[in-house]
Structure formats: C-alpha cells, structure tokens
Amino acid sequence: MATDTLPDTEQTKTLLKEALIELLQERRPEFQEVLLEALEEVAFEKAIQAGRRDEFVSEDKIRAILEE
Q: Over the stretch 14-41, which tens digit does the pLDDT of each residue have?
C-alpha cells in the first residue's frame, strides 16, 4: 500500500469522530453495551491485579462460601 493513500492524522481524527458520533446517534444501545463490557473488563483486570498482591484463598474456603 502506498503511503500517499493513507489519511493523515487530522483526517483520521475527523473520520473517527464522525464514526463515533454516527454510532452514538444510530446504534446507541449497541454502543452502550460494548462500552459497558469494556469497562467491566478493565475493572475485572484491576481486581485480578489487586488479588495477586493479596493472600491467596484456598479452594475449599471458596467452595464453603459458595455453598452457604
């Protein structure tokens, strides 16, 4: 692919903004769902990282809590 056919940074920003605006206007529920899933993934990753610094819990203890 020739580099002269690639959009420059400003064109890319403009195209991305237009696409996001269109997405928000026309497909709001789907966009909200995707955004929520992404935020949940970030929160889940942070929880995993925090858990790795803490003391590990035995499988038996987890099962006991789940069976309550």
A: 999 998 898 888 988 888 898 899 999 9
